[in-house]
Amino acid sequence: MQLSVHSFMQLTLPKPAVLLAGFFVSATFLSGCATTSSAPASYSSYAKAPQFIAAEMASQLVQARAGQQLTFSNSPWGQQVTAQVVSRYFSAAGRECLQLQLTSNSADSAVICRYNEQQWAVNRELTVANLPQE
């Protein structure tokens, strides 16, 4: 038996059933992508909950400007910590952030970002890997 284009066009398939089957096959493949993770375990630190700071400390950050010295009586870095505001910027996530240079008990720096109108949290600093010299 030889099929022509005309006879092929006359085949009738139950369209709703075909569409439904196609949907379930697509959904199965997509759900596999959503549940499979190939990220190394070290990446789990990116999903840590933010470390919110005390309201007293947050109130100083609202109006802080680059170059300004701030003193925190109670901070994530200890008691009576002094920090200098290095810069104020917006993160890629759209949060208002401050980069601080801690001067009291260490030479470390920190990034603090605003999460909502009244809450600020310590954020992970972005670092740049050393690239090979050409």
Kindly list the characteristics that best describe this protein.
134 residues; alpha+beta; six-stranded antiparallel sheet; 3 helices
Overview in brief:
The protein is an alpha+beta fold.
- What quaternary form is this? single chain
Uncertain residue ranges:
35-44
How are strands sequenced across the largest beta sheet? 1-6-5-4-3-2
What separation lies between the terminal Cα atoms? 69 Å
Helical residue percent?
Answer: 25-40%
Number of helices: 3
The number of distinct β-strands equals 6
Biggest sheet statistics = 6 strands, antiparallel
Rounded mean pLDDT is 75
Q: Please state the structural category.
A: alpha+beta
Tell me the β content.
25-35%
* Topology as a string of helices (H) and strands (E): HHEHEEEEE
Molecular structure report:
- By secondary structure, the protein is α+β, with helices and mostly antiparallel strands.
- The protein has a domain at about 50-125.
- Helix content is about 25%, strand content about 30%.
- It is built from three helices and six strands; from the N terminus they run ααβαβββββ.
- The chain has helices at about 5-10, 15-35, 55-60; strands spanning about 50, 70-75, 80-90, 95-100, 110-115, 120-125.
- A six-stranded antiparallel beta sheet has the order 1-6-5-4-3-2, covered by helices on one side.
- The chain is elongated.
- It starts with a helix and ends in an 11-residue tail after the last strand.
- The model is unreliable at about 35-45 (pLDDT under 50).
